[in-house]
Amino acid sequence: MRNSDAQEQTPQLAEENIRAVAKLQKQAARRRTAGERFADAVSARVARESTVVVHVIWFGLWVVINSGRVSFVTPFDPFPFTLLTTIVSLEAIFLTLFVLASQNRMTHEADRRAHLDLQVNLLSEQEMTVVLRMLGELCEHFDLRATVSSSKYRELASRTDVSQLAEQLEQELPPSDRGPAEGPS
Question: Which helix (H) or strand (E) holds 55?
């Protein structure tokens, strides 16, 4: 399927949403610092299968050469391969720091998206409440009272108190699902 065919099949509102999401992604990418871009690049590079292959070959050659099995090369790091251990330890430390930096940035971006999602959900709830109230007025005008007189309709047509919902959720969740334990300050 060609790109133009796909665009013809995608509703206009969906296309607008896709462009809005793409714009948010581009803005987030532009906000990254040089250090964040470097950490992301390192993390992306080492997360490839080829990196595993390179390390297996590197370690294998190191062990073979430093075990004295290659007659024309003098071992420079004999068993227990202290230099190799040091290099691998340093590599592990730096890779861990790069991965943690990338994960920290991604968590921050996910938090931003979650806040945006919450705002959109709150706005949708408020809009839906207005729509239900308008529908109720229409039902009353046309003397259709079965739905608007139900307790379920009255509950849904009233404004939702998000703070109260959050408190209820906090009380209902088991302690392990509530997030980090709060200790004394």
Answer: helix 49-66
- Short-list 116, 117, 153, CA closest to 136: 153
pTM, entire model? 0.63
Question: Looking at beta carbons, which pairs linking 67-73 to residues 24 or more positions away fall under 8 Å?
Answer: none
pLDDT, residue 102, reads 92
Contact 129, 160 (CB under 8 A): yes
Per-residue pLDDT reduced to its tens digit, 34-68: 988 888 898 889 889 999 999 999 999 999 999 99
Taking the domains of the chain in order of start, what are their residue ranges? 34-172
109-120: average pLDDT: 91
Please tell me the number of Cα atoms within 13 Å of 151 on its side-chain side.
Answer: 0
Q: Is 38 exposed, middle or buried (0-12, 13-18, 19+ CB in 10 A)?
A: middle
Question: Vertex 178, ends 155 and 123: CA angle to 5°?
Answer: 40
Residue bearing the bigger pLDDT, 178 or 125:
125
Alpha carbons 132 and 157: distance in angstroms, whole number = 6
